[in-house]
Amino acid sequence: MSEARAPSEERGGSLGDTFRRFMLRPEAPALVFLAVLLVAFSLSSDKFLSGPNFESIVVSVAVLGTIALAVNQVILSGEIDISTGSMMGLCAVAAGAVATSTGGLVLPLLAGVAVGALAGALNGLLVTLGRIPSIIVTLGMLYALRGVILLVTGGTWITGIPSETRVLGTGSVLGIEYPVFVLLALFLVMEVVSRHSTWGRNVFAVGGNRRAARFAGLPIDRVRFLAFVLVGVFVGIASIIYLGRAGSVQTNTGTGLELQVVAAVVIGGTSISGGRGSPLAALTGAVLIGVILNGLILVGVPGTWQQAVLGALILLAVATDVLRRRLVGDKA
Amino acid sequence: MSAATAVLRRLKFSREVVLLGVLIILMVAMSLLSPLFLTVGNLLNTSRFFVEVGLMALGMTLIIITGGIDLSVGSNLALVSVAVGFSYAAGLPLPLAIVFGLVVGVAAGLFNGLFITLLDLHPLVVTLGTFALFQGLAYGLTEAQAVSDFPAWFAYFGQAYLLNVVPGQLFIFIVAVVVVWLILSRTRFGRYVYAIGNNEEAAHFSGVPVRRVKLALYSGIGLLVGMAAVIYTSRVYTARGDSGLGLELDVISAVVLGGASIYGGSGTIGGTVLGVLIIATLRNGLVLAGVPSTWQVFVLGVLLLLAVFLNEFFRRREE
User: Fold this and answer.
1) Domains held by chain A: number
2) Is A295 a domain residue?
């Protein structure tokens, strides 16, 4: 810091420096891992790296990725949300019910987003005002919301979703399928929000060091509350994509999704202890999960192993995060 | 103000009494809902269901007192159940298969403990991962198949009656309650558990072997889960990968209802036992009243939130 480096030395080290800086980014290991996997799978199966297959992978993780982008903010703020599976089911029920009675795209979307935002706000209120740990709040909500789904539907399926509602799951624009389009658009929005909005910066501050953030006068509760509401809104949007792709809603819609979402976020490189990560991490993690699940099928691993693979990936991701921080010497 | 705090202090002092009152009110309500409820046969039969949750709740109480949590107990139960069933189906004598199952349970708990202590990770992240991993292993290893051709004597663990009326597993539970209660309230280890929950750093600097205590706790709950799994498998007479799905909610709810603070530092075995009884009464009553099982889960979810909220509400009032 004190001594200026010789120009030649700087030039010699610049490539290494760029590499080092890249490796210090939170999502770097996941991106490297993704690249390695893509090469490995395309060597073992020539169908894998064809354009349509890769696009179908991204389509298959559009719901997961959309929710992961929002849960990413919750985890960045130092909290967690494991209620998204049931929340997605409830939003899909609301959107599906509106779709079958009125049709159109806007009204079902609004219904899904409104129900999601309401559920997210309840999570947020219980965490901030109720001062209950978010893991307990969202664990309780995971089961409670599933009960609400049963109450509302009476255990029956919602079918016959009109095609104009399904456009977000089935249509395409400029040759790109809508789910991919929506996912990338939301990703770009979150990158901008996370980097350039006050709330986006505050999320990092609150998650990195809550006490310091409080002493700095940041509205800790409002920051976290908004993160939970954002999850609800994104879950609502994701439920419309789901509705479009599935064409029906069952009472068990979204079961187990919450684990995949958390897995996507932490595998992507966002630290589970908060304060460190990026929207790119959530997106990378979601695509990585899609590639792994797709690749396992191509290699011939039975679907019963999916859950075990997810669990192992979560553990691997959090362990790597700890070990990397120990190596770099970055505390907290 | 001072009168109010005095009342609240007495309320805290008599938390077990309040829970007992809740239990009695609940039983009266349930017996009004269904005439079958308040029969000796039904009450004893109810114990068949709460012993499994109860055994796990004993271990969970100690873990929650240290400020930790174990979300993987339901999945671990499935793993042990599958380990017993499929090792027996593969030709291992049943007694050895049961021992093997218990070893698997302890190993799974130890895995949690090692992961948590060696990497300094929060238990909720680790056990969220193993929640998926254990359940996934139970599914994957069995290819979603089931084993149910056990010999007749295996029913002893989950279906036998002692003296023709008392379910056998009730005795196992009572012994476990006494043992865990003695450990928590009468040994140095028990003091360590509270010390870690109150202030882990201070406990560490006071010479408490924090890591070893945690390792013992997570392995210990593995053993209790193993016992619960053997009883469960014997009771339903089937070993399959989706056993114990969602049981962690019952277990955590019972412990929190019993007054253990989710932030650590406080909790009692007596409170937990009452919490287990209340949840069992609620579940049994709802079954008799013909409420579908998904609704029971809804009730439990709300109950968990309510219990934690009230706990923390009263705790903050006291401060």
Assistant:
1) 1
2) yes
| B295 interaction partners in chain A (CB closer than 8 Å) | 147, 150-151
Q: So what's the ipTM on this one?
A: 0.84
Query: Is residue A68 within 8 Å of A235, Cβ to Cβ?
Result: no
Query: What letter would DSSP give residue B65?
Result: H
Tens of pLDDT, residue by residue over B137-152, are 998 888 878 888 888 7
* Cα torsion angle, A231, A235, A238, A240, sign: negative
- Is residue A329 domain-resident? no
Domain of A136, CATH number, reads 1.10.3470
Q: Distance from B161 to chain A by nearest Cα, in Å?
A: 34
Q: Taking the model in full, what pTM does it have?
A: 0.84
Residues of B in contact with A311 (CB under 8 A): 129-136
> Cβ of A126 and B305 within 8 Å?
yes
Task: Enumerate the residues of chain A whose CB falls inside 8 A of the CB of residue B130.
Answer: 311, 315
Name the more confident of B309 and B255: B255
| B14-33 confidence digits (pLDDT tens) | 567 777 888 888 888 888 87
| CB-based contacts of B264, cutoff 8 Å, min separation 6 | B64, B65, B66, B67, B68, B196, B197, B198
Q: Which chain A residue shows the shortest CA-CA distance from B299? A: A144
Q: Nearest C-alpha of chain A: how many angstroms from B16?
A: 22
pLDDT of A280 higher than 90:
yes
